[in-house]
Amino acid sequence: MYWGMGAYGRKKKLTAPRSVVVKPFEKRRATFYVPKNALTMKEWLKHIQLIYNNQKIDYIEFSDDSHEFDIDDIKEVFGNITDVYIENTGCFTFNQMILEKFFPIEKLFIKNSSFQNSKIPESILSQNFLRLDIGVIDDDETITMTLDDLLLLNSKVANIENLQMTPKHFNKFIKLWQKGSNPRLEYLSIGYPNVEGSRDFDNILNGIKYNKFRSSENMFQSAGLLEPEVIDGMNIHRYDGTKATIGFGRDNWSMAVWMDHCIA
Hints:
- The protein is α/β, with parallel strands linked by helices.
- It contains 7 helices and 16 strands.
- The two termini are 43 Å apart.
- It holds the Pfam family FBA_2.
- InterPro entries: F-box_Sdz-33, Zygotic_Embryogenesis-Asso.
- Residues 121-190 form the Sdz-33 F-box domain.
């Protein structure tokens, strides 16, 4: 699609497209050229949604040079979208505007580099998202967070990739969860580089009482997960009796909290 320059703020406006590219999943894309287009961008969107009988936009992604566009114009065309991806748009202020314009957001996908000094604001960590993803699998960018940052997490599901943190801090986090921290957390997955196998796993569970668990009957589900999962690992308990299962992968560990509604 082609864009024109907006009049105010030197921002590009979403003008009527000269061509439209439609690419259904797992199918060849179709390109339509419109020599005499009388439809606006918003009208084209509604037209395509009608053709494919799909009124919902699953997510919106902001990436390279997105900051050149008028955020109010984008919101006007695409409306309320609850799943938002923010990558390297080229402007920290624009990234903050995305969060404000599309509030409330249910699922947020971000990177450290999306924010000033590669520091994710506390106001984002403490929001009650259904799901918060920080970092990207197989990305060279490492995520820097502190133990206090982890304790601020208020999402039901949190996924953090390439996190630079020691097993000692993970151990402290789990112990603080047992004492009542992060009460909304249902599922946490952390990928971290330089794993030293069973030695790290022993350090993460150091001083924590647990028993081995295999999910033979129940599956774990959460509104922030795409589908129920089989959970195996080590069972631990919070002070109020709530059970959680700690699982270890090749380069990650996870914690599933078995709240009543999480049993599939």
